[in-house]
Amino acid sequence: MVEEEKRSKLEIHIGNLDSQILMARRGNASVAAAVVYLYFRLGWDSVTVAEEIGITSPHVRQMLARLHNAADGTSTTARKKWRGGQLGEQ
């Protein structure tokens, strides 16, 4: 049981590293452009786009959501302001 959990976590970690390597080699803008083109222009679903590019389908959906939010000017992360002392202290 413990070995299966370790294996599962290792597989996820390897997949994440593989995606990071792909993004570093091709460049974020290049991958984002490919995702947008394949998804919107050709009408492919996220699974097909992911298979074509070599990333995971959740990564495709996350990238599209973040690009959409950036275009809308909305933020997806809450950031605490530094006011001296500890973060978040008033």
Put the structure in a nutshell.
The protein has 90 residues and is mainly alpha-helical. It contains four helices and no strands. Helices cover 70% and strands 0% of the residues.
Give the C-alpha Rg.
18 Å
Question: Uncertain segments of ≥5 residues (pLDDT<50)?
Answer: none
Any idea of the CATH class? Mainly Alpha
- Write the H/E string, N to C: HHHH
What is the subunit organization of this protein? single chain
Helical residue percent?
Answer: over 70%
CATH architecture: Orthogonal Bundle
Number of strands: 0
In whole angstroms, the N-to-C terminal distance is 47 Å
What do the pLDDT scores average to?
84
User: Which band does the percent of strand residues land in?
Assistant: under 5%
CATH topology: Arc Repressor Mutant, subunit A
Query: What is the total domain count?
Result: 1
Question: Main β-sheet: number of strands, strand sense, barrel status?
Answer: none
How many helical stretches? 4
Shape label = globular
Break the fold down into its secondary structure elements and pairings.
Layout: H1 2-26, H2 28-41, H3 46-53, H4 57-72
Helix pairs in contact: 2-3, 3-4
Overview of the molecule:
By secondary structure, the protein is mainly alpha-helical. It has one domain: Arc Repressor Mutant, subunit A, CATH 1.10.10. The chain has four helices and no strands. The model has no long low-confidence stretch (mean pLDDT 84).
